[in-house]
Design brief:
Number of strands: 13
Helix content: 25-40%
Order of helices and strands: HEEEHEHEEEHHHHEHEHEHEEE
CATH superfamily of the largest domain: PurM-like C-terminal domain
Structural class: alpha+beta
Radius of gyration: 19 Å
CATH architecture of the largest domain: Alpha-Beta Complex
Number of helices: 10
Strand order of the largest sheet: 8-10-7-11-9-12-13
Distance between the termini: 30 Å
Strand content: 25-35%
Number of domains: 2
Largest sheet: 7 strands, mixed
Oligomer: single chain
Shape: globular
Length: 336
């Protein structure tokens, strides 16, 4: 057993697989598995879909983040997010009633916006923290014939990316390092980056619904820690497929590119809630792109899923192929 300290971020895929339980109750339809965004439980006439996610990087508007990030996990599986519980852990000697009220107001407003009921949770001031940590547990439902899982992605599928790389990272950088950015960027530019939280926004509920209703969707995945690159690895791992990703097709805004360059961040590995990966039937991809465009949601085909023996490759702009990197530590940690 290796006793070396683990790096920041998600656990390695190979290590995580070794510790996940396999002896599950028969009612568990989708259990813990790399690349699946939530668990699924047979709830009688429907499936109950459950996820949990913490907010560990952002502090400003942390309540909005926790609602969006958790509801995204359910949307990628075709479910409607309905019920939320939160655990709020607050730093000792820094927590005021105003801070607690602000976080609760953020959560409440986000739940109202997405028609989600805040059902309960736990709040405390905790020893050893230097900032608030908020953990959400989101529950929702999906009809049994509408469930979408990552492992259903298929060889030959087109891989669609919506909105682009580093949306959440852009908002976090602008909110957590605003004073530093103002030395080299205009106030208007920084304000624009801060607004990435809601415009283009870190929620994918709308685009997931559009893609599902258009048809041809085999799988969807929500890129969070480790960015789009790591999310592609997770999706491919779940479905046992390979992938070829085209670098020149990857969507990224100028402002995201500029902010990432400022801190030496690779956008491929930067936290990217707000983007959505869609594995779709080749014959339906153009219809999905058109339906998204009609709602002014940018999207493009960034690659294709292949035989697993082909590996997971990135075709660079110079035409050379390399292995698509996987980021065990999210690039956003470079700002802290």
């Amino acid at each position: 057993m290796n006793d070396s300290p683990l790096p920041l971020g998600k656990l390695r895929i190979d290590f995580l697989e070794k510790i996940l339980p396999t002896n599950l109750d028969p009612s568990v339809v989708v259990g813990p598995k790399v690349g699946e965004d939530a668990t699924v439980i047979d709830f009688g006439s429907t499936y109950l879909v459950i996820t949990t996610d913490p907010i560990t990087f952002a502090t400003d508007e942390i309540g909005w983040y926790v609602v969006c990030v958790n509801s995204n996990d359910l949307a990628t599986m075709g479910a409607t997010p309905k019920w939320l519980q939160v655990t709020i852990l607050l730093p000792e000697n820094k927590t005021t009633e105003k801070l607690v009220r602000d976080i609760m107001d953020q959560i409440t407003k986000a739940c109202q916006h997405f028609n989600i009921s805040l059902c309960g949770g736990h709040t405390e001031v905790t020893y050893g923290l230097d900032r608030p940590i908020v953990i959400g547990q989101m529950l929702g439902e999906v009809a049994k014939d509408k469930l979408i899982i990552s492992s259903s992605a298929q060889e030959g599928d087109d891989l669609i990316l919506t909105k682009g790389l580093g949306i959440e990272a852009t908002s976090i950088i602008a909110r957590e390092r605003e004073s530093d950015l103002l030395k080299n960027f205009s106030p208007e530019r920084v304000t624009q980056a801060r607004k990435y939280l809601t415009d283009p926004g870190i929620s994918v509920l709308k685009e997931a619904s559009i893609a599902i209703n258009t048809g041809g969707v085999h799988a969807m995945h929500d890129p969070t820690e480790g960015g789009v690159s790591t999310a592609i690895h997770e999706l491919a791992h779940a479905a046992n497929v390979g992938a070829m990703i085209w670098e020149d097709k990857l969507l990224i805004s100028d402002i995201t590119k500029s902010l990432c360059q400022e801190f030496g961040i690779d956008p491929l590995g930067a936290i990217s809630s707000g983007a959505l990966l869609i594995a779709a039937d080749h014959d339906k991809s153009d219809q999905i792109l058109l339906a998204l465009a009609e709602q002014e949601i940018p999207s493009t085909i960034i690659g294709q899923l292949l035989n697993p023996e082909d590996g997971i490759q990135l075709k660079r702009k110079d035409g050379q192929n390399q292995q698509l990197p996987i980021f065990e530590t999210d690039e956003i940690t470079k700002i802290f």
